[in-house]
Amino acid sequence: MQTDPQVSPIRYTARCADDVGIACYRFANPGGVPVIVVHGTFSSHEGCTGLARQLADDGMDVWSMDWRGRGGSEMPDGPFDFDTVAQVDIPAVLKLVQTETGKRSAFFVTHSGGGLIVGMWAARNPELANDSVHGLVTMAAQAHLAAERPQHRQRIAEMAQYLETIDIIPPRQLGVGSEPESAALMRQWCRWNLDGAFLGSDGFDYLPALTALNFPLLCLIAGGDHFVAPRAGCESFANAFGSTDHTVRHCSQEHGFAEDYEHGRILASTPARKEIWPLIAAWVRQRAKTA
């Protein structure tokens, strides 16, 4: 059964180990392959709705989540960072999807920081991830190479200094995003890029740990994104995975795409709807044959 793309998704709540409720929106296709869609920073599931509906219209059972502290999800009592979202939110959502669908494995389709948190969770739980992740799609995802240019390093350093003075970043405060964001989380991103190292808050080194992961990976690099997720950073993140089914695409005019996609446009734009979304759907469909 294919979902009607105009029908509102069904809302579920995944209850985390720390009792925070994570909102999940299901574009239901019972029997279809489960696909969990994960947004990035300063965003919510709403930014991924177009892509989620398209995947559902292609017959997939799509679940689009909100990280803690935004959208329909609950705000935790204390500060949180990428490690929190990765190690607490992601397993709660995966468990919910497994319970509701009766299927052991799911695909993850992610944008920006969404790809990082799935990778971070998987890196610390490789056996579980290899058993329960049927494939991962990342769009414009990198962790530690945004400060290679002097002007970008200065910008990130100034951002990090400002973030020391607040707990929650209001929407649009930094010129991006529709949702508030955790200052602790963004301080972590600044530190990764200023130090050139993708380390957890406890010192865990994520890049070498990714080599233990063997599920299929599709990495889409936004050709016009030279700051948040530059090509070198995206390639470094993607190439750290141990996957043998490993595809990296540079989404730029030079490589046959309609435009040099910027950070947000690779997820949501008219050209993305025409060529990025179908590319993702085809990749998932091909690998779903063995799901």
TrEMBL record:
Residues 34-143 form the AB hydrolase-1 domain. It comes from the Bacteria. Pfam families: Abhydrolase_1. This is AB hydrolase-1 domain-containing protein.
